[in-house]
Amino acid sequence: VFCWFTNPKSLGDVNMVTEELKNLYYKRLLPIEKYYSFHHFHSPSYEDADFDNKPMVLVMGQYSAGKTTFIRYLIEQEFPGSRVGPEPTTDCFTALMYGDTERIIPGNALTVDPKKPFRNLNIFGNSFLNRLQCVQMPNQVLENISIIDTPGILTASKRKLSRGYDFPAVLRWFAERVDRIILLFDSHKLEFSDELTWAFGALLGFEDKLRVVLNKADRMDSQQLMRVYGALMWSLGKVFRTPEILRVYIGSFWSEPRQMCDHYQLIELEEEDLLSDIRNLPRNAAVRKLNDLVKRARLAHAHIISYLKQEMPTIFCKESKKHNLIYQLPVIFTKIQQRHQVPAGDFPDCTKMQEKLLGHDFSKFKALKPALMTSLDKLLTTDIANRMPLLQQQEMSKKSLPSVLDGEFLGTFRPEHYRRDPFKELPKDDESSEIDLDGWVVERYKPKYDEIFYNLSPSEGKLSGTKVKKWMITTLLPNSVLAHIWRLSDIDGDGMLDNEEFALAVHLIEGKLEGHWLPRQLPSHLVPPSKRLSTVRHED
Q1: What is the predicted pLDDT for the residue at 86?
Q2: Mean pLDDT, consecutive 10-residue segments, the chain of 540 residues?
Q3: How many C-beta atoms lie closer than 10 Å to residue 23's C-beta?
Q4: Nearest to 374 by CA among 387, 364, 383, 363
Q5: What is the pLDDT of residue 164?
Q6: What is the helix (H) or strand (E) element at residue 177, kind and residue range?
Q7: Where does the record place the EF-hand domain (predicted)?
């Protein structure tokens, strides 16, 4: 029996947990952020959409690394504006989100929509907003997560080109808000350009969200792959100076047949690991939001602002004193750390803080307000602890994303979105189509399929899942696609295939090898005649 899939379950309702987190933020944390102008120095205040939005995945990498193809692989569907090529083809930040109808929302309109978590992007100006869009489309994957496609990071030969906006700053804005960052590298073009190094700088502090993918690994032998993998790990170690080693996945992430290679099994295992990580994002979404909330609360911003206010003279030499305080900021951090017992990790980056302080009038800063600090302390010591049981209960009840390994995640969309004819539901208002439905479109190919079936030595007229799997993997299609084909073909759900079900499976495989999308559910004209009555009863 196939062990690749789990039955898709409902994701459950998390409104209660979301409302609790919102209430904590608006009641305890937001008044402190406003009082000490937190948004001028760090990130903008949270809005309802930041709590209500689905988990987001940021896909980034150098051009031609396979970003757009990777997204198509996840949703098993093309999306408006997507184009694949060896040259830089994606010049926009594209947010893929669920919608009942397919439409494109331009950047300027997107940033004024209170229901979308992108309102604060207007700080990057029109040059960026003209390169921002949201694509809404009906897709099962996008019902549970949103995906952000990014422009390809330029190589050394193109680094002099100006984008017209602060690309690393935009990446950091998204990195702070997304649940997962997928960074793709082309195993054949491993090059660390200036812009890539700047992009890495934008990701510092978010290493826990980062997953690195060495893509197109089926197109080289094991010796070459070992050398490229080693070079990538060495380069990443120079940029991310942390004791922990970043997780690097080796794969070939697209839904077409892979090239046979010595490390084919490794690619399959790496695929399962990465997809499992993405699949669990909805389950961990509330925990991530709580974690971000605590991060903001622990930042020693209020202590810094109040100390600078306290040290400023009342009348004379304000400007010289201001510059002196900015110069001594590292020493001030140490004093605050000792006086208030604040851990060193709760302070912002000193250099960036110094840069931002230059444009502010210290005399307008606010002194430490005991009532606000007591409220903050209550948030961290009592309120969060009281909400943890509710959070744990929600986490246990919340199911993961529909399994990629059973094909539900990969896609397959609703009947109205089938792209090509072989698997498309035939119209029922046409007399000729009614005649076609009386037959079975697979029947004409069945003698050829039966020969394969009987060569696999069926037992009592059926093939076990083990035998079918052994034959299926010779097609070199990803396990995720094969598992979906198995689910469509095992109509009676007994874990085995008879000759008609096997013929259907081979027909679907051949269609997929020709480049067609698979249906989400089996159209009636593909159901074997002997199974149609049982299928109708099952649907009833």
Answers
A1: 54
A2: 32 62 88 88 84 89 83 81 59 90 92 90 91 90 90 65 82 91 87 79 85 88 88 83 79 74 82 84 79 83 89 83 91 90 87 89 87 86 79 57 38 32 44 50 88 91 88 83 85 88 91 77 83 56
A3: 12
A4: 383
A5: 83
A6: helix 167-177
A7: 477-512
Measure the N-to-C terminal CA separation of the chain; round to a whole number of Å. 27
User: How is residue 206 written in tokens?
Assistant: 């978010």
As given in the structure block, the two tokens for residue 452 are 């394969």
Here the tokens at position 302 are: 């209020």
What is the phi/psi pair of residue 127, to 5°? -60, -40
Between the alpha carbon of residue 348 and those of residues 10, 215, 303, 304, the distances in Å are 40, 35, 12, 10
Helix, strand, or coil (residue 277):
helix
pTM of the model: 0.69
Nearest to 409 by CA among 1, 2, 6: 6
CA-CA distance, 220 to 226, in Å (whole number)? 10
Q: Identify whether the C-beta of residue 518 lies closer than 8 Å to the C-beta of residue 512.
A: yes
CATH superfamily of 443-531: EF-hand (1.10.238.10)
pLDDT attached to residue 386: 80
299-369 CATH pick, 1.10.268.20, 3.10.290.10, 3.40.50.300, 3.40.50.2300: 1.10.268.20
